[in-house]
Amino acid sequence: MPHPSLTGEEIATQPENWRTAAALAASGPAGLPQRGERVAVVGCGTSWFMAQAYAALRESGGHGETDAFAASEFPHGRRYDRVLAITRSGTTTEVLRLLADTDLPSTAITACTDQPVAASAGHLIDLGFADESSVVQTRFATTVLALLRAHLELEEARPAGVATVAEAAEDAERAVAWDVPRELVELEQISFLGAGWTNGLAQEAGLKMREAALAWTEAYPAMEYRHGPISITAPGRAAWAFGALPAGLADEVAAVGGRLVADSGAGGLDPLADLVRVHKLAVALAAHRGLNPDEPRNLTRSIILS
Protein backbone atom coordinates (compact mmCIF):
# COMPACT_ATOMS: atom_id res chain seq x y z
CA MET A 1 0.00 0.00 0.00
CA PRO A 2 1.32 3.48 -0.78
CA HIS A 3 1.97 5.73 2.19
CA PRO A 4 0.11 9.04 1.92
CA SER A 5 2.56 11.55 3.37
CA LEU A 6 5.30 10.98 0.81
CA THR A 7 3.23 9.84 -2.15
CA GLY A 8 0.54 12.46 -1.70
CA GLU A 9 0.60 15.82 0.01
CA GLU A 10 4.26 16.20 0.87
CA ILE A 11 5.49 15.72 -2.68
CA ALA A 12 2.55 17.24 -4.51
CA THR A 13 2.53 20.53 -2.57
CA GLN A 14 6.07 21.48 -3.52
CA PRO A 15 5.21 23.84 -6.41
CA GLU A 16 2.90 25.85 -4.16
CA ASN A 17 5.36 25.67 -1.26
CA TRP A 18 8.03 27.23 -3.46
CA ARG A 19 5.71 30.05 -4.50
CA THR A 20 4.88 30.71 -0.86
CA ALA A 21 8.59 30.78 -0.05
CA ALA A 22 9.20 33.31 -2.83
CA ALA A 23 6.49 35.54 -1.38
CA LEU A 24 8.07 35.19 2.06
CA ALA A 25 11.44 36.25 0.64
CA ALA A 26 9.79 39.30 -0.91
CA SER A 27 8.44 40.32 2.51
CA GLY A 28 12.02 40.86 3.68
CA PRO A 29 12.40 38.57 6.71
CA ALA A 30 15.24 39.66 8.98
CA GLY A 31 18.36 37.56 9.07
CA LEU A 32 18.80 36.48 5.47
CA PRO A 33 22.38 37.03 4.23
CA GLN A 34 22.97 40.44 2.74
CA ARG A 35 25.15 41.21 -0.26
CA GLY A 36 28.82 41.20 0.65
CA GLU A 37 28.47 39.24 3.89
CA ARG A 38 30.82 36.31 4.37
CA VAL A 39 28.45 33.49 5.25
CA ALA A 40 28.71 29.94 6.59
CA VAL A 41 25.66 27.76 5.91
CA VAL A 42 25.27 24.70 8.12
CA GLY A 43 22.97 21.74 8.52
CA CYS A 44 22.89 17.98 8.95
CA GLY A 45 21.97 15.37 6.36
CA THR A 46 19.52 16.77 3.84
CA SER A 47 19.91 20.28 5.29
CA TRP A 48 23.66 20.10 4.70
CA PHE A 49 23.11 19.26 1.04
CA MET A 50 20.71 22.20 0.63
CA ALA A 51 23.40 24.34 2.28
CA GLN A 52 25.88 23.15 -0.36
CA ALA A 53 23.51 24.06 -3.19
CA TYR A 54 22.78 27.51 -1.77
CA ALA A 55 26.42 28.27 -1.04
CA ALA A 56 27.35 27.56 -4.66
CA LEU A 57 24.43 29.64 -5.96
CA ARG A 58 25.14 32.60 -3.70
CA GLU A 59 28.84 32.78 -4.40
CA SER A 60 28.55 32.20 -8.15
CA GLY A 61 25.93 34.96 -8.27
CA GLY A 62 28.41 37.44 -6.81
CA HIS A 63 26.56 37.81 -3.52
CA GLY A 64 29.55 37.07 -1.31
CA GLU A 65 31.90 34.35 -0.12
CA THR A 66 29.81 31.41 1.10
CA ASP A 67 30.86 28.10 2.65
CA ALA A 68 28.73 25.09 3.53
CA PHE A 69 29.49 22.74 6.41
CA ALA A 70 27.99 19.80 8.20
CA ALA A 71 27.18 21.39 11.55
CA SER A 72 29.51 18.97 13.35
CA GLU A 73 32.42 20.06 11.14
CA PHE A 74 32.12 23.83 11.50
CA PRO A 75 35.59 25.47 11.71
CA HIS A 76 35.25 27.65 14.79
CA GLY A 77 38.56 29.36 14.11
CA ARG A 78 37.20 31.10 11.00
CA ARG A 79 35.38 34.40 11.07
CA TYR A 80 32.11 34.91 9.23
CA ASP A 81 29.63 37.76 9.14
CA ARG A 82 26.76 35.30 9.58
CA VAL A 83 26.02 31.66 10.30
CA LEU A 84 22.88 30.45 8.53
CA ALA A 85 21.56 27.20 10.01
CA ILE A 86 18.98 24.95 8.36
CA THR A 87 17.06 22.65 10.71
CA ARG A 88 13.60 21.31 9.98
CA SER A 89 12.90 20.12 13.53
CA GLY A 90 14.72 22.87 15.42
CA THR A 91 16.10 20.18 17.72
CA THR A 92 19.11 18.75 15.87
CA THR A 93 21.88 18.37 18.42
CA GLU A 94 24.85 19.41 16.27
CA VAL A 95 23.09 22.55 15.03
CA LEU A 96 22.06 23.59 18.54
CA ARG A 97 25.59 23.02 19.84
CA LEU A 98 27.06 25.14 17.06
CA LEU A 99 24.65 28.00 17.64
CA ALA A 100 25.32 27.89 21.37
CA ASP A 101 29.09 27.86 20.92
CA THR A 102 29.45 30.63 18.34
CA ASP A 103 29.50 34.36 18.99
CA LEU A 104 28.80 35.10 15.32
CA PRO A 105 25.49 36.61 14.17
CA SER A 106 23.17 33.72 13.37
CA THR A 107 19.96 32.91 11.56
CA ALA A 108 18.03 29.64 11.56
CA ILE A 109 15.48 28.47 9.01
CA THR A 110 13.13 25.96 10.60
CA ALA A 111 9.69 24.43 10.39
CA CYS A 112 9.30 24.40 14.17
CA THR A 113 9.71 27.81 15.79
CA ASP A 114 8.60 26.52 19.21
CA GLN A 115 11.65 24.27 19.54
CA PRO A 116 15.05 24.95 21.18
CA VAL A 117 16.50 26.58 18.07
CA ALA A 118 14.33 29.60 18.84
CA ALA A 119 16.47 30.36 21.88
CA SER A 120 19.75 29.68 20.10
CA ALA A 121 19.56 31.68 16.88
CA GLY A 122 19.70 35.45 16.60
CA HIS A 123 17.04 35.45 13.88
CA LEU A 124 14.42 32.81 13.08
CA ILE A 125 12.71 32.26 9.72
CA ASP A 126 9.52 30.24 9.94
CA LEU A 127 8.88 27.65 7.21
CA GLY A 128 6.20 25.86 9.17
CA PHE A 129 3.96 25.80 6.10
CA ALA A 130 6.39 23.29 4.56
CA ASP A 131 6.70 21.01 7.61
CA GLU A 132 6.30 17.28 7.14
CA SER A 133 4.96 14.26 8.99
CA SER A 134 7.40 11.94 7.22
CA VAL A 135 10.83 11.23 8.67
CA VAL A 136 12.24 11.58 5.16
CA GLN A 137 12.54 15.21 4.08
CA THR A 138 11.14 16.28 0.75
CA ARG A 139 9.21 19.56 0.65
CA PHE A 140 10.89 21.32 3.58
CA ALA A 141 14.32 20.94 2.03
CA THR A 142 13.33 22.10 -1.43
CA THR A 143 11.30 24.97 0.01
CA VAL A 144 14.34 26.21 1.97
CA LEU A 145 16.31 26.33 -1.27
CA ALA A 146 13.42 28.03 -3.05
CA LEU A 147 13.35 30.72 -0.33
CA LEU A 148 17.07 31.32 -0.62
CA ARG A 149 16.99 31.33 -4.42
CA ALA A 150 14.15 33.85 -4.36
CA HIS A 151 16.17 36.07 -2.03
CA LEU A 152 19.10 35.99 -4.46
CA GLU A 153 16.71 37.06 -7.22
CA LEU A 154 15.57 40.03 -5.15
CA GLU A 155 19.20 40.96 -4.51
CA GLU A 156 19.88 40.71 -8.26
CA ALA A 157 22.37 37.94 -7.55
CA ARG A 158 20.80 35.08 -9.48
CA PRO A 159 23.58 33.29 -11.36
CA ALA A 160 23.47 33.25 -15.14
CA GLY A 161 21.55 30.29 -16.50
CA VAL A 162 19.62 29.66 -13.28
CA ALA A 163 15.84 29.93 -13.62
CA THR A 164 13.58 31.99 -11.39
CA VAL A 165 11.69 30.30 -8.57
CA ALA A 166 8.46 30.97 -10.47
CA GLU A 167 9.85 29.05 -13.44
CA ALA A 168 11.13 26.28 -11.20
CA ALA A 169 7.68 25.92 -9.62
CA GLU A 170 6.13 25.47 -13.05
CA ASP A 171 8.63 22.72 -13.75
CA ALA A 172 7.86 21.17 -10.37
CA GLU A 173 4.23 20.83 -11.42
CA ARG A 174 5.42 18.77 -14.38
CA ALA A 175 7.58 16.69 -12.06
CA VAL A 176 4.69 16.04 -9.69
CA ALA A 177 2.59 14.80 -12.62
CA TRP A 178 5.40 12.53 -13.91
CA ASP A 179 4.71 8.80 -13.99
CA VAL A 180 7.73 6.83 -12.79
CA PRO A 181 8.82 4.44 -15.56
CA ARG A 182 8.97 0.79 -14.58
CA GLU A 183 12.50 0.49 -15.94
CA LEU A 184 13.76 3.07 -13.42
CA VAL A 185 12.22 1.16 -10.53
CA GLU A 186 13.99 -1.98 -11.72
CA LEU A 187 17.46 -0.40 -11.86
CA GLU A 188 20.07 -2.04 -9.66
CA GLN A 189 22.09 1.13 -9.00
CA ILE A 190 22.12 4.88 -9.76
CA SER A 191 25.02 7.34 -9.67
CA PHE A 192 23.71 10.90 -9.25
CA LEU A 193 25.87 13.62 -10.79
CA GLY A 194 25.90 17.40 -10.47
CA ALA A 195 28.10 20.43 -10.95
CA GLY A 196 28.22 23.74 -9.11
CA TRP A 197 24.97 24.22 -7.20
CA THR A 198 23.49 20.97 -8.54
CA ASN A 199 26.20 18.92 -6.86
CA GLY A 200 24.31 19.41 -3.59
CA LEU A 201 21.15 18.21 -5.33
CA ALA A 202 22.95 15.09 -6.52
CA GLN A 203 24.12 14.36 -2.99
CA GLU A 204 20.57 14.82 -1.70
CA ALA A 205 19.12 12.58 -4.43
CA GLY A 206 21.44 9.78 -3.43
CA LEU A 207 20.55 10.17 0.23
CA LYS A 208 16.81 10.24 -0.50
CA MET A 209 16.95 6.94 -2.36
CA ARG A 210 19.02 5.31 0.38
CA GLU A 211 16.76 6.54 3.18
CA ALA A 212 13.38 5.79 1.63
CA ALA A 213 14.14 2.64 -0.36
CA LEU A 214 17.47 1.23 0.88
CA ALA A 215 18.76 1.75 -2.66
CA TRP A 216 22.35 1.46 -3.84
CA THR A 217 23.11 5.01 -4.89
CA GLU A 218 26.18 7.19 -5.01
CA ALA A 219 26.73 10.86 -5.84
CA TYR A 220 29.65 12.75 -7.34
CA PRO A 221 30.56 15.97 -9.10
CA ALA A 222 29.84 15.27 -12.74
CA MET A 223 33.45 15.62 -13.89
CA GLU A 224 34.52 13.10 -11.25
CA TYR A 225 32.41 10.39 -12.89
CA ARG A 226 35.32 9.41 -15.12
CA HIS A 227 37.68 9.07 -12.15
CA GLY A 228 36.32 5.80 -10.82
CA PRO A 229 32.50 5.90 -10.59
CA ILE A 230 32.16 4.92 -14.26
CA SER A 231 33.41 1.49 -13.21
CA ILE A 232 30.11 0.97 -11.37
CA THR A 233 27.95 1.68 -14.41
CA ALA A 234 26.73 -1.31 -16.43
CA PRO A 235 23.53 -2.65 -17.99
CA GLY A 236 20.74 -2.32 -15.43
CA ARG A 237 22.44 0.65 -13.76
CA ALA A 238 22.19 4.38 -14.44
CA ALA A 239 23.83 7.76 -14.22
CA TRP A 240 21.35 10.55 -13.38
CA ALA A 241 22.67 14.03 -14.11
CA PHE A 242 21.34 17.28 -12.67
CA GLY A 243 21.91 20.19 -15.03
CA ALA A 244 24.12 20.37 -18.10
CA LEU A 245 26.17 17.31 -19.03
CA PRO A 246 29.95 17.52 -19.40
CA ALA A 247 31.04 16.94 -22.98
CA GLY A 248 31.38 13.27 -23.78
CA LEU A 249 29.69 11.93 -20.65
CA ALA A 250 26.61 10.63 -22.48
CA ASP A 251 28.78 8.63 -24.86
CA GLU A 252 30.80 7.22 -21.97
CA VAL A 253 27.69 6.04 -20.13
CA ALA A 254 26.38 4.43 -23.31
CA ALA A 255 29.72 2.74 -24.01
CA VAL A 256 29.55 0.77 -20.74
CA GLY A 257 25.90 -0.16 -21.24
CA GLY A 258 24.42 2.17 -18.64
CA ARG A 259 21.25 4.22 -18.77
CA LEU A 260 21.57 8.00 -18.75
CA VAL A 261 18.85 10.12 -17.12
CA ALA A 262 19.44 13.75 -18.08
CA ASP A 263 16.26 15.79 -18.26
CA SER A 264 17.27 18.95 -16.40
CA GLY A 265 19.30 21.98 -17.36
CA ALA A 266 19.10 23.84 -20.67
CA GLY A 267 15.77 23.07 -22.34
CA GLY A 268 14.70 20.67 -19.58
CA LEU A 269 13.41 20.76 -16.04
CA ASP A 270 14.87 23.07 -13.45
CA PRO A 271 17.30 20.85 -11.50
CA LEU A 272 15.36 21.42 -8.26
CA ALA A 273 12.23 20.18 -10.01
CA ASP A 274 14.21 17.18 -11.20
CA LEU A 275 14.85 16.38 -7.53
CA VAL A 276 11.07 16.10 -7.13
CA ARG A 277 11.18 13.27 -9.68
CA VAL A 278 13.74 11.52 -7.49
CA HIS A 279 11.32 11.85 -4.57
CA LYS A 280 8.71 10.06 -6.66
CA LEU A 281 11.18 7.38 -7.74
CA ALA A 282 12.23 6.77 -4.13
CA VAL A 283 8.62 6.23 -3.10
CA ALA A 284 7.95 3.97 -6.09
CA LEU A 285 11.02 1.88 -5.34
CA ALA A 286 10.09 1.64 -1.66
CA ALA A 287 6.63 0.36 -2.64
CA HIS A 288 8.24 -2.11 -5.05
CA ARG A 289 10.37 -3.43 -2.18
CA GLY A 290 7.57 -3.46 0.39
CA LEU A 291 9.14 -0.68 2.46
CA ASN A 292 7.56 2.29 4.22
CA PRO A 293 9.33 5.39 2.83
CA ASP A 294 7.95 7.56 5.63
CA GLU A 295 9.68 5.59 8.38
CA PRO A 296 13.11 4.53 7.12
CA ARG A 297 15.18 1.98 8.96
CA ASN A 298 17.29 3.29 11.87
CA LEU A 299 16.18 6.93 11.44
CA THR A 300 13.94 9.33 13.33
CA ARG A 301 12.56 12.75 12.39
CA SER A 302 15.24 14.51 14.42
CA ILE A 303 18.65 13.24 15.45
CA ILE A 304 19.06 14.14 19.12
CA LEU A 305 22.28 12.96 20.73
CA SER A 306 22.63 12.15 24.41
TrEMBL record:
Signal peptide: none
Listed GO biological process terms: carbohydrate derivative metabolic process
Matching Gene3D superfamilies: Glucose-6-phosphate isomerase like protein, domain 1
CDD domains: SIS_GlmS_GlmD_1, SIS_GlmS_GlmD_2
Keywords: Isomerase
A GO molecular-function descriptor: isomerase activity
Protein's UniProt name: Sugar isomerase
Organism encoding this protein: Kitasatospora cheerisanensis KCTC 2395
